[in-house]
Amino acid sequence: KNMEFGKLLKDARISKGFSLEFVEEETKIRKYYIDALENDDYSVLPPQVYACGFVKRYAKLLGLDPQVMVGNFKRFAYDQEVTDDNMINDSSEEIQSTTVLKPKKIFWRRKNILFAIAFLIFAIWAGNYTIDYITGSWQNKSDNNFVPMLPDKTPIADHQQNDASPSNTGQEQTISESKVRIEIDVNEKCWLTVIVDGKQEIAAILWPGDHKSFVGNESVFIHAGNAGGIKVKFNDQEVPPLGGQFEVVKKEFKNN
Q: In a 3-state reduction of DSSP, which class is residue 225?
């Protein structure tokens, strides 16, 4: 019975003369997932909320009833009994679901919940660690009126500080430019979280062609859901791939 769902999508696409590449361009759904839907290969699909959104967009393009197709998809892929209250709201890609999962699918939801909790705990720990490190660094300074010393230990006069020599100016410039600069270019759809100096800067799904830049004083932490789909530059130097396609990777870049 499952084959009827994927076959219906494929037959409708072929009857309209649509190629997989055309569907990918029109719906912004990767051809990899379109092929999986047509062949009822649900194991490679993303989480249910995104997969149902794919079915809705694909059904609209093919001229099929999106609500009926999403309902059938839930029954075939997740063994859910779907009521009218479970249908996708046209104004949102989120699933307003009151369905009851059968026992064999409950573990999948629990696994995602446990992963989210573990990541939240890690993010809190990383933030506290960074704050403690910064606080400790400032406490090690005797006061805020530190006076630089010449090699003979003679304090620099006020007018010498105001009229700094070129060498001193260059030194101050080097110190001020000591940052952690990260540039990310997205080649494939990727869920990404970036934490700069303990503060979360982004947690979103990025699409091919997106470009993001981050600058930190101490560190930049990257958590990528598809490490093979992004390219990273650290202080203008491209780094080796963080991981393979669809591999979840965490990487921290620090100021040396």
A: coil
For residue 111, the one-letter residue type is: K
- What's the full length of the chain, in residues? 256
Identify the pLDDT of residue 128. Answer: 63
- Token pair 């105001």 is found at 162
Residue from 196, 193, 238, 192 nearest 218 by CA: 196
Using alpha carbons, select from 133, 141, 111 the residue that is nearest to residue 48.
111
Label residue 209 left, alpha or beta by phi (over 0 means left) and psi (-120 to 50 means alpha).
Answer: left
Q: Which residues of the chain have pLDDT under 70?
A: 1-3, 80-112, 127-177
R_g of the chain computed on alpha carbons = 26
Q: At what angle do helices 31-38 and 2-15 cross, to 10 degrees?
A: 120
Residue 136 burial (10 A CB sphere; 0-12, 13-18, 19+): exposed
Residue 147, φ and ψ in degrees, nearest 5: -110, 120
The pLDDT value given to residue 124: 79
SS3 116: helix
Token couple for 103 = 């026992």
Rounded distance between C-alpha atoms, residue 67 and residue 52, angstroms: 10
| Cβ atoms within 10 Å of 190's Cβ, excluding its own | 21
Burial of 150 from C-beta contacts in 10 A (0-12 / 13-18 / 19+): exposed
For residue 97, report the phi and psi dihedrals to the nearest 5 degrees: -105, 130
